[in-house]
Amino acid sequence: MKKIQMLIDGEWIGDQNDQWIDVIDPASGKLTTQIVRGDNAHADRAVQASKNALKSSTWKSVKPFERGQLLQDTARYVRENAEELARLESLDTGKPIGQANADIEAAARYFEFYGGLADKVFGDTIPIEENLVNFTTIEPIGVTLHIVPWNYPIQITARSVAAAIATGNAVIVKSSEDTPLTTNFLAEWFNEKLPKGVFQHVTGYGAEIGAALSSHPGVDQITFTGSVPTGIAVMKAAADNVVPVTLELGGKSPNVVFKDADLDRAVPSIVNSILQNAGQTCSAGSRLLVDESIADELLERIKERFSGIKVGPPSHNADVGPIINEKQYKRILAMLGSIDKNANVLAGGKAVQVKGYENGFYISPAIIEASSHSDFFVQEEIFGPVLSVIRFTSVEEAIDLANDTPYGLVAGVWTKDIDRAHYAASRIDSGQVFINSYGAAGGVQMPFGGYKKSGIGREKSHLAVQNYIQIKNTAIQLQL
Matching Gene3D superfamilies, A to Z (predicted)? Predict the structure, then answer.
């Protein structure tokens, strides 16, 4: 078993003097590897190394187009090693290998996209008055901290790291204690290609090294993806140092199906949106809002799809893999066990034993028709393969229901009526609205972020570079 060391200041850190954390394969419950339990001293050393890298002429002298070429090379490297990276991602998360393959390609696209953008982040000249030349220049924001969750480790690492490196920053990645493997793979690559301190990978518990980094006065910007409570804690820590944050905190996203929807198109998309990565997706389509007149037909079609779903480890070519860890597994089962008897459980929601993988964390995908939209499983993010169903009778009611949660990340609207589609999309409080689809392959070019408690700021697309830059205004008074 190869242990995962941290990469700090160009050195691999982790020996017999450090504490180590077990990393468990969610598919089998067996030990995968161990990571260093990072502490305050590790955090401080990483931040200082990043500061030194930013000051050094070595990194400053790298031209924007050269940063772009490095990221393009990284995209090629990811694709050349796609099979191994998908294996590692699947081992870390338990997701089916087909989904892991899609994640690797998405990561490559992030590096490719921001590689192409690196020398196209421009300042402006601004007309003020005669004999005054005024212009803006773009500078890196500095030391950027990237706190990455366990559900899409390589994708989420790539999407923010690529934008930060493209704009000349030094980055510190804190991977989840559950999923360090693919970030470590990238760290080995960047350690060979970048000056020391420009890319660093630290490991450990969020409450320890994650908190130490979030509150460190040497960090200049934080990108965090995860739960609302942890996001609030990160934001409070950043506020003490007046540090900007980009937060992506989850959702309770609806698929809104009107009576004229094309169900042949809608059903597979709705099913995939809740079963992708065993429902462990911030943008999962976890609420189904359906017109009363077609509800019975739609639910029968979805139940039929669910009946053919295979739950199991990646080695079984399953449709739905395990829950990430025992804690999350028990939490989901406890939530399912406390559902009010007035709710109608149409399918699933039980622990699943897989032969040969009895210690894995498997749950059968559930469909639950709620008695009220205020039911906790409709309002709260379960982060598992659980689809909540509510019926509506009018367009206005559908929009009110879509907006009736603390979140606003993604929504799907299903209708053949273009007027109804635009009307609903303009009134749903959501960072992304898809019409007659749900999600996009990678969605690299699309701004991604939420309303309300789904977060602050936008990732993906050209807009993401704004998270990692400072804008300096210079005014020159001409003396004639």
Answer: Aldehyde Dehydrogenase, Chain A, domain 1, Aldehyde Dehydrogenase, Chain A, domain 2
Taking all residues of the chain, what is their mean pLDDT, rounded to a whole number? Answer: 97
The domain spans of the chain are: 6-249+457-473, 254-443
- Considering only CA atoms, which of 148, 143, 168, 144 is closest in space to residue 158? 148
> What is the tens place of the pLDDT at every residue in 277-314?
999 999 999 999 999 999 999 999 999 999 999 999 99
Phi, then psi, of 145 in degrees rounded to 5: -105, 130
Residue with tokens 């187009």: 65
CA 200 to chain centre: 19
Q: Within 10 A of 406 (CB to CB), how many other CB atoms are there? A: 16
282 labelled catalytic: yes
SS3 annotation, 25-67: CCCCCCEEEEEECCCHHHHHHHHHHHHHHHHCHHHHCCCHHHH
* Catalytic residue chosen out of the listed positions 248, 369, 381, 459: 248
Q: How far apart are CA 453 and CA 24, in angstroms?
A: 31
Has 248 been annotated as catalytic? yes
Q: 363, 366, 341: which is closest to 354 by C-alpha?
A: 363
Is the CB of residue 174 less than 8 Å from the CB of residue 146?
yes
pLDDT digits (tens, 9 = 90+) for 184-210: 999 999 999 999 999 999 999 999 999
89, 112, 282, 459: which is the annotated catalytic residue? Answer: 282
- As beta bridge partners, residue 221 has 144
pLDDT band at 480 (very low <50, low <70, confident <90, very high): confident
Amino acid found at 156: I
Select from 3.40.605.10, 3.30.450.20, 3.90.1150.10, 3.40.390.30 the CATH code of 6-249+457-473.
Answer: 3.40.605.10
Q: Is 460 left (phi over 0), alpha (psi -120 to 50) or beta?
A: left
Partners of 448 in the beta sheet?
459
Assign 3-class secondary structure to 143-175. Answer: EEEEECCCCCHHHHHHHHHHHHHHCCCEEEEEC
Question: Residue 117 belongs to what H/E stretch?
Answer: helix 97-117
Contacts of 176 (CB under 8 A, 6+ apart): 148, 149, 150, 153, 206
**CA atoms of 152 and 180, how far apart (whole Å):** 11
**Superfamily of segment(s) 254-443:** Aldehyde Dehydrogenase; Chain A, domain 2 (3.40.309.10)
Q: Are 429 and 419 in contact (CB under 8 A)?
A: no
Number of other residues whose CB lies within 10 A of the CB of residue 307 = 9
pLDDT at 90: 97
Q: Which residue has the tokens 């929807």?
A: 261
Beta-carbon count within 10 A of 479 CB: 5
pLDDT tops 60 at residue 152: yes
